Each structure stands twice: as structure tokens, then as C-alpha cells.
Amino acid sequence: MSPLRRGGGEGRDPIGPGRPALVVVAHGSRDPRSAATVSEVVSAVAAARPELDVYPAFLDLNAPSVERAVDAVAAAGHTAAVAVPLLLGSAFHARVDLPGLLAAARTRHPFLHCTQADVLGADPRLVTALRDRVRATGADPRDPRVGVAVAAVGSSSPAANDRTRRLARPLVAGTAWRAEVCFATTEPTLPETISRLRARGCQRVVIAPWFLAPGRLTDRLHGAAGPHPFAAPLGAHPALVDVVLERYTNAVSLPLPLSA
């Protein structure tokens, strides 16, 4: 398994084992659109930083696995790697699954230093990216008749859902829009949220999926959206690439600039 590279270019640092490899770790899905989106994200990250060795990895359902990716990093001669979770929340996968996989990797490769970076989370740049997706549906930020239904996965943790609800205010900051948050797996549901926005005077409701990629849950939400415009997931938005690279930079304390 080879890393994704985009060539050194004149004046760049050579690629070598002294610079930590970047392992972009996604959740994984049976939906091929999800893996395709992750591939686009990883390619964009590799293109933004040609001096890095960038490896894709999945926690479940897709290949390559985290184990295989770390093995490839070690085989390439790296002595350090940073795993950046491509996750919007710090749930079980980030707190238990990935740390366990990296601990096992350290046992297999005692000379490879594996570091786990922070999750993407509700970074303000990703909220801006979500606003871009809403605007791409034709929603005018100056139009007070526009309501935005932010649709997220949902959690069994009320605290996690409360954190997601906080997306509404920064999303509409600087616009005339109104926003409400709903969930695919718990309440409030999307139809309930559309009704609430209608009751608040919104004549046009746009569904904004707080997801990295399309999949089964976004399809379910799309079906519940009826005639209302449905924005694209975050995907390989430049802001997401910036956040991935910043998480890497913070984890290794390298003064790498963010992509433009």
C-alpha cells in the first residue's frame, strides 16, 4: 500500500521518513459514495501538502483498515505517524476504537510513534463550509424567509446532542436566516423541525446535512425532506482540508501553513 503523493516541487522539503506520515481515518460505510468522498478528501489533503505521505484508513466496512495503513507506514520507513480522525464528534470511535487500534500498532511496531489528533468537531471553518453548501442551493443570506434545518446523526448522549444544537447560531450568524437542528436517529425529527421553521415564518426551508459524505442516513433524511432543497454534505470542501491539516500540525507541532 503506497501513500498518496503529489510530487515534491522545486524548493520543497523532500519526502522522507523523518516527517510524520498522515493517516486520515474515516468511519467507513457500506455505501460506496461514502468511500468515494473520503478518497476525494484524502486526495485533496495530499495535493495541499505534497511533502507529506498521506494514507487513507477506515475504522470499519472499507479498506484499507487502520491496521493495514499503519503497517504500510512502518514498512515505508517512517518512525512517526499522526492519525487524524475524519469524525465530526468525539464519540466511541474516537475515544475507544481508534486509541485501541493505535495501541495495538505500537505493539506491532515499537519503533513507530503513533499519535492520535483531535477529531474535526464543530470547527468554525466547517460551519462556514456548511453555510456554503446552503448558499449553493440558491438560498440568499439576506432573505429572512429562509429557514435552515441542520440535520445531524444524533446520539444517545443528550450532552452530545446539545453540542450539535449549538451549530444553529453560528451557522446563521451574519445572515437573515433562521435555523433549527434535528437528528436522523433521535428527536426532533426533520419533519418536526421543518414545521417549527414554518411556524417561525420561514417560507423556504433548506436541509443542511451535518455529514461528511452521503450515505444511508442522508438518504433517509432526503426522503423525509419532501420538496425542500437538500444541500450537499461537507465533502472535500477546502475548509475541511484546512482543518485536517491543522489537526495534524497541532499533533506534531510542525509549523506547516494551512492551505489557501
Count of individual helical segments: 9
Strand content: 15-25%
Q: Looking across the biggest beta sheet, what order are the strands in?
A: 2-1-3-4
Secondary-structure element order, N to C: EHEHEHEHEHHEHEHH
Summarize this structure briefly.
The protein is an alpha/beta fold.
Secondary structure topology:
Blueprint: E1 21-26, H1 32-48, E2 54-58, H2 66-75, E3 80-85, H3 92-108, E4 113-116, H4 124-135, E5 146-152, H5 158-165, H6 168-172, E6 178-183, H7 190-199, E7 204-209, H8 216-225, H9 238-252
Parallel strand pairs: 1-2, 1-3, 3-4, 5-6, 5-7
Helix pairs in contact: 1-9, 2-3, 4-9
Task: Report on this structure.
The protein has 260 residues and is α/β, with parallel strands linked by helices. Helices cover 40% and strands 15% of the residues. The protein is built from nine helices and seven strands, in the order E-H-E-H-E-H-E-H-E-H-H-E-H-E-H-H. It has a four-stranded parallel β-sheet, with helices on both faces. Strand 1, helix 1 and strand 2 form a beta-alpha-beta unit. The longest helix is centred in the N-terminal third of the chain and has 17 residues. The protein is elongated, with a radius of gyration of 19 Å.
Main traits of this protein?
alpha/beta, single chain, disordered C terminus, 9 helices, 260 residues, elongated, four-stranded parallel sheet
